[in-house]
Amino acid sequence: MTPPVAVLGNGPVGQTTALMLARWGVPVLLLDQRAERDAAGSKSIVQQRDVLDAWEAVGAGRRIAAEGVTWTTARTFYRDAELLRVTFADAGRSEFPPFVNISQSRTEQILDECIAAQPLISVRWGHRVTGLAQDSGGVSVSCATAAGPAVLRAGYAVACAGAHGEPLRRMLGVRFGGQSFGDLFLICDIRTDLPGWARERRFYFDPPWNPGRQVLIHPCPGSTYRVDWQVPADFDEAPGARDARIRKIIGDRPYEVVWSSVYRFSSRVADRMRAGRVLLAGDLAHQLSPFGARGLNSGVQDAENAAWKIAFVLRGWAPDALLDSYHAERHAAACENLEVTSATMRFLVPATGAERRHRVATLEAAVADPAARSAVDSGRLAEPFWYSASPLTTPDPARPFAGRPARGAVPPPGPGILVPDVPVPGIPGPGALVPGLPVFAAERSAPGTLRALARTGFLLLCASGADVTAARGAAAEVAAPVRVLDAAALPDSGAGLAEAGLASPREVWVIRPDAHAAAVLHSPRQAEIVTALRRALALPEEP
Question: pTM to 2 decimals?
Answer without folding.
Answer: 0.93
